Automatic annotation (TrEMBL):
Record family assignment: Belongs to the CutC family.
Name the record gives this protein: Copper homeostasis protein cutC homolog
Domain of life: Bacteria
A Pfam family: CutC
Amino acid sequence: MTIKIKEAAVDSADRAQEMIARGANRIELNARLDLGGITPDTRTVIDTLTVAGNIPVVVMVRPRGGDFAYDNTELNQMLETLQIIADLGGQCVTFGVVRNGALDMDMMSTLIETANTLKLDVVMHMAFDEIVKDQQQEAMNWLFAHGVTRILTHGGSLTTPITELLPQLKFLVDHAPVGMTILPGGGVTRDNADKIADILGISEVHGTKIV
């Protein structure tokens, strides 16, 4: 399968510029990639949107590292972040709320509705991997029904190499609603991306070393 989208996860405008120059054609912007990515500061968002030009930028909305079960204060923080990103001219955000191995549909509904109101596209990030496997099909269907058309997933625990998780990723690709993109990440690199894309039958890949 020919790769059409190479999404580079970055933590600065300089890194975004570098990855775009190398051939990345979508950016996921974070702070603290060592924590799996959290919300970047406003200055970094402004600078990255500027250097990216016509290249799409997906901005991480995650108030802290650790798990993906947030309290109401953190939820309000995320809602404020959505407003800021929209005000800065952002067009796409990524977030996920998972509690006790299940998608937190209440909080996700609130976040998605706010993003929709602000004309922000929504991507489900790797919090998806915290959902127990027998609920992932339902979660995909629910997300798609609520306008989420892309899921970033490693296919399992980040401690397991992605090459060992290809069967689960293939299951997700094959069972995702028509029109939903399963975006593999976490260990996808310029060296293995083509092989992974071929095995999974996909055209979009994500990583910090994707180009």
